[in-house]
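Handout, page 2. Input:
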Amino acid sequence: MTQGQDKFGGLAAAAQQFEATKRDAAGLVGGLSDAQLNWAPAPDKWSVGQCLMHLATSTDATLPAIDRAIARARERGWYRTGAVRYGWFTRWMTGSMEPPPKRATKTFKIFQPPAQSLRREAVVRALSESRDRLLDRVRQSEGLDMRRTIVVSPVTRLFRMPLGGYLAFLAAHDRRHLYQARQVLGAPGFGSS
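Output:
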């Protein structure tokens, strides 16, 4: 394995997923009306638009934490080449995000998608721009020690993950909510209103 690679696929795999998220999201909503984009299978379930906006808003809420981790690693000279293996917590958290979801999880308030009606072009643009910002952080991470560089969650300082593991977690999070959006498209009643 080369620098930045690990059992999660490393920086290259994360970057590929973030690029795929942009393409997949545009494809998912390409033929939808705004009414279909905002249709939810139940009052307590998200619409396709909310699934995708959640990805954009939750990523943007975590960028300052990622930036702090990158800056700290550079200040302290935390560089590394070679394979990385993460601890059980990082592996478990990342695996828990993979689709299909094994259990429902409650979303923290700062990561909630907007409740108002969404427009297709705005959703696609917001998600694409958020993924471009995330891809920029992946590029900034090249050469850093992916295990020693720690990202502290904006929700609680108790939730910490190595930078490489956190990027793998975000890639799995993308897959989870793209899966969720596809489930909405296949839900009974979709497109009938």
